């Protein structure tokens, strides 16, 4: 049968679609590594859909492996975790358009407040159930967090709100600006700022709050930053920003080879003919492009693994596909190409892709496009 344009294109029958497979066992192993580095509680940070690995999957796995808290940037993400049946405490710390105090209290979602204005906006809603809040000190980022000059005002307002039963101060937090340095000395100013903040909170008569500062790097490298809890995000999915610890890659990106051909030497490949085959060779097409998160700016070393060997990506990355030079090897269509996966000595890792693209692995995993099917190993 032909369509109006005579273009029935039977898709390759039986091919598995491009898929990002999350590996829960790796997440659990990464939590176990964090556990060996700290006695503090572990918050599993699952913002940006669990760094692209599926927030609910990563959260459930991390909690089963010993994480006692969950962290997200906004209340909507937190609500999805609650809806999925996760019952541990959840903190959110980036609430650009304000927070629905009633919903936060009802959902048992903790809110970080980083300025007197933010807290005032919360109190104006006169919540009938106390909202659990974490006072967020700016420990050197000038991003979220309360500047030191406004700290006393924030505490005074929190005092009032707590006396009226509208909020309860349960936490105190900062964030390390040098999150990718394994250097306790570099963290020291933030540690001392948070200690100072803690003294002011104690002086104002609050019960000692749960105090937290470190993210993955601090967790793995600097016990002085651990306080009562660490916030472990990138590490869950195998990224150690400090570069000191071999963590477990927690995902595998695969796609079937859709087309293969033998070509002559001097064959231009892809848009602009940016690559000319230097010899007679075999090319294979993999249906993943920059719309799926394959970085367009990559070094000539960028490769995928097929049949246990690395083969280079050649020519420009298109929106929907890349071309692989497989040399003497003819790859039958339907063969699985693995773009990245856990380190096995052959398969490229997210760290390899970050290097090839001149970026950090976080952008690789959070950039995988929505049409890539998500599965769990
Ligand atoms: C993202 C984030 C974390 C987790 O950082 P990782 O380096 O990914 O572990 C912790 N705290 C805050 C405030 C964050 O925004």
UniProtKB/TrEMBL annotation:
<feature type="active site" description="Proton acceptor; specific for D-alanine">
    <location>
        <position position="47"/>
    </location>
</feature>
<dbReference type="InterPro" id="IPR011079">
    <property type="entry name" value="Ala_racemase_C"/>
</dbReference>
<comment type="function">
    <text>Catalyzes the interconversion of L-alanine and D-alanine. May also act on other amino acids.</text>
</comment>
<dbReference type="GO" id="GO:0005829">
    <property type="term" value="C:cytosol"/>
</dbReference>
<dbReference type="Pfam" id="PF01168">
    <property type="entry name" value="Ala_racemase_N"/>
</dbReference>
<dbReference type="InterPro" id="IPR020622">
    <property type="entry name" value="Ala_racemase_pyridoxalP-BS"/>
</dbReference>
<comment type="similarity">
    <text>Belongs to the alanine racemase family.</text>
</comment>
<dbReference type="GO" id="GO:0030170">
    <property type="term" value="F:pyridoxal phosphate binding"/>
</dbReference>
<protein>
    <recommendedName>
        <fullName>Alanine racemase</fullName>
        <ecNumber>5.1.1.1</ecNumber>
    </recommendedName>
</protein>
<feature type="modified residue" description="N6-(pyridoxal phosphate)lysine">
    <location>
        <position position="47"/>
    </location>
</feature>
<dbReference type="GO" id="GO:0008784">
    <property type="term" value="F:alanine racemase activity"/>
</dbReference>
<feature type="active site" description="Proton acceptor; specific for L-alanine">
    <location>
        <position position="271"/>
    </location>
</feature>
<keyword id="KW-0413">Isomerase</keyword>
<dbReference type="GO" id="GO:0009252">
    <property type="term" value="P:peptidoglycan biosynthetic process"/>
</dbReference>
<dbReference type="InterPro" id="IPR009006">
    <property type="entry name" value="Ala_racemase/Decarboxylase_C"/>
</dbReference>
<dbReference type="Pfam" id="PF00842">
    <property type="entry name" value="Ala_racemase_C"/>
</dbReference>
<feature type="binding site">
    <location>
        <position position="143"/>
    </location>
    <ligand>
        <name>substrate</name>
    </ligand>
</feature>
<dbReference type="InterPro" id="IPR000821">
    <property type="entry name" value="Ala_racemase"/>
</dbReference>
<dbReference type="GO" id="GO:0030632">
    <property type="term" value="P:D-alanine biosynthetic process"/>
</dbReference>
<dbReference type="InterPro" id="IPR001608">
    <property type="entry name" value="Ala_racemase_N"/>
</dbReference>
<dbReference type="InterPro" id="IPR029066">
    <property type="entry name" value="PLP-binding_barrel"/>
</dbReference>
<comment type="pathway">
    <text>Amino-acid biosynthesis; D-alanine biosynthesis; D-alanine from L-alanine: step 1/1.</text>
</comment>
<keyword id="KW-0663">Pyridoxal phosphate</keyword>
<feature type="binding site">
    <location>
        <position position="319"/>
    </location>
    <ligand>
        <name>substrate</name>
    </ligand>
</feature>
<feature type="domain" description="Alanine racemase C-terminal">
    <location>
        <begin position="250"/>
        <end position="377"/>
    </location>
</feature>
């Amino acid at each position: 049968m032909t369509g109006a344009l005579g273009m029935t294109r039977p898709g390759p029958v039986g091919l598995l679609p491009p898929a990002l497979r999350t590996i829960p066992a790796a997440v659990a192993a990464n939590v176990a590594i964090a556990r060996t580095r700290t006695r503090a509680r572990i918050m599993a940070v699952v913002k940006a859909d669990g760094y692209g690995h599926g927030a609910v999957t990563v959260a459930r796995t991390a909690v089963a492996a010993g994480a006692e808290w969950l962290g997200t940037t906004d209340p909507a993400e937190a609500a999805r975790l609650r809806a999925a049946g996760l019952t541990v405490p959840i903190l959110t710390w980036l609430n650009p358009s304000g927070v629905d105090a009633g919903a936060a209290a009802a959902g048992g979602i903790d809110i970080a407040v980083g300025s007197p204005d933010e807290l005032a906006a919360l109190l104006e809603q006169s919540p009938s159930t106390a909202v659990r809040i974490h006072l967020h000190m700016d420990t050197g980022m000038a991003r979220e967090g309360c500047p030191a000059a406004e700290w006393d005002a924030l505490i005074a307002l929190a005092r009032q709100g707590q006396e009226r039963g509208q909020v309860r101060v349960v936490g105190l937090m900062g964030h390390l600006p040098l999150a990718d340095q394994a250097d306790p000395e570099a963290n020291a100013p933030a540690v001392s700022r948070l200690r100072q903040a803690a003294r002011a909170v104690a002086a104002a008569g609050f019960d000692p709050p749960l105090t937290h500062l470190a993210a993955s790097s601090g967790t793995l490298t600097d016990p002085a930053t651990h306080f009562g809890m660490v916030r472990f995000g990138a590490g869950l999915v195998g990224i150690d920003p400090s570069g000191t610890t071999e963590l477990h890659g927690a995902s595998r990106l695969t796609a079937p080879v859709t087309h293969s051909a033998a070509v002559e030497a001097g064959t231009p490949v892809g848009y602009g003919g940016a690559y000319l085959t230097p010899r007679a060779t075999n090319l294979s097409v993999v249906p993943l492009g920059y719309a799926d998160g394959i970085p367009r700016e990559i070094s000539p070393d960028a490769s995928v693994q097929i049949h246990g060997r690395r083969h280079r990506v050649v020519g420009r990355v298109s929106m929907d596909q890349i071309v692989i030079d497989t040399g003497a090897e003819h790859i039958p269509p339907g063969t699985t190409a693995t773009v990245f996966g856990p380190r096995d000595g052959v398969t490229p890792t997210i760290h390899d892709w970050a290097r090839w693209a001149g970026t950090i692995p976080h952008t690789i995993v959070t950039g995988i496009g929505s049409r890539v099917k998500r599965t769990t190993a």
